[in-house]
Every structure is written in structure tokens, then in C-alpha cells.
């Protein structure tokens, strides 16, 4: 700081010089404070003294606020779209599950119907087969034979075959001719059997006890019936001789 230009300044002591410099500085400060417009040494400025006016946003702040609002709207729209999309997916998944369940139920029903149809067809075929068998059996049972010695022997042979009784046409025919000459009403009233009260009767001359013991189911109980007589006699011969074919004389 330059020394003040005061006459005789250089002759002052150092103490006097510092005192003068201080006084000069204080005066300059007082002059500067006095020239401030509206200056009031005792006045103080506070926030309450500021005018109560709305604060205007700057252009940059307005842009930031607008951008924030756009982002908020976009976020809300995205959330709504995501919710709607999730609902659509859930509905589609539920519809697919229901369709799959319906398809499975339809397939099960179709399979069950097919099995029932197949079972019905099998039953129908089996019934038809049984019916055909019955028809064949009935036809066999209703097979007709001529009412003569040939027919009687053949009918007896068919019955014997069903019952497992052995014998041949030749063996039966041979014994019939010897015993009765082919007369189904033939009867022996002179031999020992007749004297005992049980005369031999029919084509193969069978006594009553023998006929009753060896009678074959399905034939008549009349000892004079040609088929019943032949069949019972062959059944007796099979039990005693092995077969009517083995009989070549009185038996």
C-alpha cells in the first residue's frame, strides 16, 4: 500500500504512521457504504421480504417434466397391454385344455363304441354259428330213413355212433337175418325164454329184461320198434362180446 502524501509524513514515527493509515481506510469504507442506493445501515433482507410470486420453470425443466409424463403414460399403457396379453394367453391355454379334454373324451367314447360294436358283432357271429350248429344238429336229428330193414339199420348205426356203441352194417344185417328173417314183429314162443315167460322179440330177438337194461336213450321203449330193438341188442352185444360183429350164433 503506498504511503499517504501528507506533509511531514516522513518525520512521523512508525506508530503515528499506522494510525493515520487506519483512519484513512475507515473513511474510505464509510464513503463506499454511503453511496449504495437505498442504503440503510440498520436494514436486513430476509426471505419474508421477497415478493410471493410463482416460480417459472425453465425450458429445460419443462422438457424434463413433459418427458416424465410421456414415460409414465407409456409405462401404464405397457402394463395394461401386458395384463391383457396375459389374460388372452390364460384364456387360450384354458380353451386348449378344454379342447384336449373334449378330444380325449370323444376318443374314449369312440373307442368304447367301437369295442361295443365289435363285441356285438362277435356275439352276432357266435349266435349265428350256434344257430347254424343247431340247424345242422336238428337237420341231422331230422334225417329221414326209409321205413325198411336198410333204413332201420342205418338209423340205428347213426344213433350208435353218437353213443359210442361199436358195430357195422354187415354184422347187424347178418344177425337180423338169422334171428328174425327181417321181421320186426317176430317172437319166439317155444324156447327156454318163452317157457320162463320172457319170449324173445323183434328183429334181433331181445328178451324184455335185456331190452330194458340195455335200452338206449332217444329210442322207443317198445321192444318191437325196429330201431330201438337193433340199438339195444347192439349195446348188449358190445358189453358182452365187444361188438355185434363178433356174434355169429344165438347170444
From TrEMBL:
Residues 80-122 form a coiled coil. It holds the Pfam family SLT. Residues 176-246 form the Transglycosylase SLT domain. InterPro entries: Lysozyme-like_dom_sf (IPR023346), Transglycosylase_SLT_dom_1 (IPR008258). Keywords: Coiled coil. Signal peptide: none annotated. This is Transglycosylase SLT domain-containing protein. It comes from Streptomyces rugosispiralis. The lineage of its organism: Bacteria, Bacillati, Actinomycetota, Actinomycetes, Kitasatosporales.
Amino acid at each position: 500500500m503506498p504511503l499517504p502524501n501528507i506533509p511531514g509524513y516522513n518525520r512521523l514515527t512508525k506508530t503515528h504512521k499506522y494510525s493515520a493509515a487506519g483512519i484513512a481506510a475507515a473513511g474510505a469504507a464509510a464513503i463506499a457504504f454511503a453511496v449504495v442506493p437505498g442504503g440503510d445501515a440498520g436494514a436486513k433482507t430476509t426471505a419474508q421480504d421477497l415478493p410471493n410470486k410463482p416460480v417459472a420453470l425453465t425450458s429445460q425443466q419443462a422438457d424434463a417434466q413433459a418427458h416424465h409424463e410421456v414415460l409414465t403414460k407409456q409405462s401404464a399403457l405397457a402394463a395394461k397391454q401386458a395384463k391383457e396379453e396375459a389374460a388372452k394367453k390364460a384364456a387360450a391355454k384354458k380353451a386348449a385344455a378344454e379342447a384336449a379334454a373334449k378330444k380325449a373324451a370323444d376318443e374314449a367314447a369312440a373307442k368304447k363304441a367301437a369295442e361295443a360294436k365289435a363285441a356285438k358283432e362277435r356275439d352276432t357271429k357266435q349266435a349265428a354259428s350256434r344257430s347254424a350248429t343247431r340247424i345242422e344238429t336238428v337237420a341231422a336229428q331230422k334225417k329221414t330213413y326209409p321205413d325198411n330193414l336198410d333204413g332201420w339199420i342205418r338209423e340205428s348205426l347213426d344213433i350208435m355212433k353218437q353213443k359210442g356203441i361199436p358195430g357195422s352194417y354187415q354184422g347187424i344185417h347178418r344177425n337180423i337175418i338169422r334171428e328174425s328173417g327181417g321181421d320186426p314183429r317176430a317172437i319166439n314162443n317155444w324156447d327156454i325164454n318163452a317157457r320162463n315167460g320172457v319170449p324173445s322179440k323183434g328183429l334181433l330177438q331181445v328178451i324184455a329184461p335185456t331190452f330194458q337194461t340195455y335200452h338206449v336213450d332217444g329210442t322207443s321203449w317198445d321192444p318191437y320198434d325196429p330201431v330201438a330193438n337193433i340199438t339195444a341188442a347192439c349195446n348188449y352185444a358190445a358189453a358182452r362180446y365187444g361188438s355185434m360183429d363178433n356174434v355169429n350164433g344165438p347170444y
